[in-house]
Design a protein that fits this description.
By secondary structure, this protein is of the alpha/beta class. The chain is built from 9 helices and 9 strands. The chain folds into 2 domains: 88 residues, Rossmann fold, CATH 3.40.50; 121 residues, NAD(P)-binding Rossmann-like Domain (Rossmann fold).
Length: 280
């Protein structure tokens, strides 16, 4: 039996059409969902990511504000920029592009973002609320993965789920989201001992370790759900997907699986933030 392909590219297209309709509805209330992106320095990869996010905003009729700061920006200067955007009622979401230059306290700056505008899900408060089942914007990549799981109606409750990776915006929130869906969750990482045997017992595996093809296809048991959240210049993810269609019950392709859902979730959560202005 051939595995089900979890097509994030297709789902993101469907979602964009829905977002466009809702953006048009908000215009009747004189509200235009607006995402502010902050880019510090001139890292080429970061510039590309920010451009992709702004292009997506334009496609769905949303506004984006590009804030570009020099490489020499201090923590206090960045904090002042964030405070200004927090106080700007026209801005519904704030994205601080990671990474920032070394002299900046990135965590302090992330946590300065107003929780109501934390549409990228990077604040400690947002993570804590999400973990406790309190309404919060989830980190975009794991939240996008959960949307894929729900769209394809995959059963998660009771599954033995293994998350390989422990980053604060991917591995850790991914584990909490799966736990909140009643999976039994194990977190592994690059220093985990006997990782092959742990993965071999997984009913659902999420590769989020940031190392190309770190997880070997022969480690994966037959019928597992395989989600690869990595993407590398070699045009591969964190999981060796060779012959995966004959091993897994469902899997995300690379590219075209998790990646499109990350940006789409950012845009969706910015829309949701704007919608709350009507209720307020």
């Amino acid at each position: 039996m051939t595995a089900l392909i979890l097509d994030g590219k297709e789902l993101s297209k469907i979602s964009e059409n829905t977002i466009k309709e809702k953006v048009n509805e908000l215009s009747k209330h004189n509200i235009k969902p607006t995402l502010a992106t902050i880019l510090v320095g001139s890292d080429p990869a970061s510039e590309t990511y920010v451009k992709m996010k702004r292009n997506t905003c334009a496609r769905v009729g949303m506004e984006s504000i590009a804030v570009e700061l020099p490489e020499t920006t201090t923590t206090e200067e960045l904090l002042n920029t964030i405070r200004s955007l927090n106080n700007d009622k026209k801005v519904h979401g704030i994205l601080l592009q990671h990474p920032v230059p070394d002299q900046i306290d990135e965590r302090l700056c992330f946590d300065a973002i107003d929780i109501r505008k934390d549409v990228d899900g990077v604040t400690c408060l947002g993570f804590g609320n999400m973990s406790m089942g309190i309404d919060a914007y989830g980190s975009c990549t794991p939240a996008g993965i959960i949307r894929l799981i729900k769209h394809y109606e995959l059963k998660v409750q009771g599954l033995n789920a293994v998350v390989v990776g422990r980053s604060p915006i991917l591995g850790k929130p991914m584990a909490m989201m799966l736990l909140n869906m009643n999976a039994t969750v194990t977190i592994c990482h690059s220093r985990t001992q006997n990782i092959e045997s742990i993965i071999n017992n997984a009913d659902l595996i999420v590769g989020a370790v940031g190392i190309p093809r770190f997880i070997k296809s022969e480690w994966i048991k037959e019928g597992a759900i395989v989600i690869d959240a990595g993407y590398h210049p070699e045009k591969c993810g964190d999981i060796d997907l060779d012959n995966i269609e004959n091993i897994a019950s469902a899997y995300t392709p690379v590219p075209g699986g998790v990646g499109p859902m990350t940006i789409n979730t950012l845009i969706l959560q910015t829309l949701q933030s704007a919608e709350k202005y009507i209720m307020d």
